């Protein structure tokens, strides 16, 4: 976190704030902070900004529900720009894009989607909403989830072979791969292994 007195606020008492996804380090949006917004952010742990158009303090997600949990605040080299690291609850942009810098051609990064999906799986397991397939699976136990994972792996293998012989479509392979990854996240949840532990191993291996 940062000391409000250490910020080189501009003549309007504002500092541009670059908002970054804490996990993927992707730039999500840029907004403005004043002393009040910084204080509110530090006190609540939720991203607050100063709206220049409305002339008021606003909490990100106050109306959309797409809040941002702040995990870090830092200043740049000359102290006039804030870097805010966040775990977003949803899209940063009012257009529904994860980042304000996305265009219709921007590919969706797999890692950030898996991160969000993992948060949803963990929340389902804890809140236990009625009729949830995830809850049903987790309750059935590790053995059942593991069998389901093998089944999904088999389906992917078959569709991949079809694809290799020119019969399967790219979409059908992607759908089976998505099923496999979802069941993998549920298996991790069922064995109480955080997804971040897998990320740590992968990161070491990627070096
Ligand atoms: Zn935007």
Task: Give the tags.
207 residues, alpha+beta, four-stranded mixed beta sheet, two-stranded antiparallel sheet, 6 helices, 44% helix, elongated, binds zinc ion
Description:
Helix content is 44%, strand content 18%. With 207 residues, it is α+β, with helices and mostly antiparallel strands. The strands form 2 sheets. It has a 4-stranded mixed beta sheet with strand order 2-1-6-5, covered by helices on one side. Helix 2 packs across helix 5, helix 3 packs across helix 5 and helix 4 runs antiparallel to helix 5. The longest helix is centred in the last third of the chain and has 23 residues. The two termini are 30 Å apart. It binds zinc ion. The site of zinc ion has 5 residues, from loops.
Bound small molecules, deduplicated = zinc ion
Oligomeric state as shown: single chain
Computed Rg:
21 Å
Q: What's the number of extended β-strand segments?
A: 6
Please list the strands of the largest sheet in the order they lie side by side. Answer: 2-1-6-5
How helical, in percent, are the residues?
A: 40-55%
Structural class: alpha+beta
Distance, first to last CA: 30 Å
The 3D shape can be described as: elongated
* Spans where pLDDT lies below 50 across 5 or more residues: none
Along the chain, the helix and strand elements come as EEHEEEEHHHHH
β-sheet strand percentage: 15-25%
Largest β sheet strand count, sense and barrel closure: 4 strands, mixed
Query: How many H/I helical runs?
Result: 6
Mean pLDDT, as a whole number? Answer: 93
């Amino acid at each position: 976190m940062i000391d409000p007195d250490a910020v080189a606020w501009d003549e309007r008492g504002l500092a541009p704030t670059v908002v970054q996804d804490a996990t993927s380090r992707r730039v999500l949006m840029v907004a403005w902070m004043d002393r009040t917004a910084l204080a509110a952010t530090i006190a609540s742990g939720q991203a607050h900004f100063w709206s220049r158009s409305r002339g008021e303090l606003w909490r990100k997600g106050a109306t959309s529900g797409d809040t941002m949990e702040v995990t870090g605040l830092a200043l740049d080299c000359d102290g006039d720009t804030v870097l805010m690291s966040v775990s977003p609850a949803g899209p940063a942009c009012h257009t529904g894009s994860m980042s304000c810098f996305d265009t219709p051609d921007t590919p969706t990064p797999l890692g950030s989607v898996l991160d969000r999906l993992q948060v949803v799986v963990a929340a389902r397991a804890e809140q236990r909403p009625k009729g949830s397939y995830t809850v049903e699976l987790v309750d059935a136990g590790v053995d059942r989830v593991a069998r389901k994972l093998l089944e999904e792996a088999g389906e992917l293998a078959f569709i991949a072979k079809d694809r290799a012989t020119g019969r399967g479509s790219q979409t059908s392979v992607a759908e089976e791969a998505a099923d496999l990854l979802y069941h993998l996240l549920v298996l991790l949840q069922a064995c109480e292994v955080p997804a971040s532990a897998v990320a740590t191993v992968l990161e070491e291996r990627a070096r």
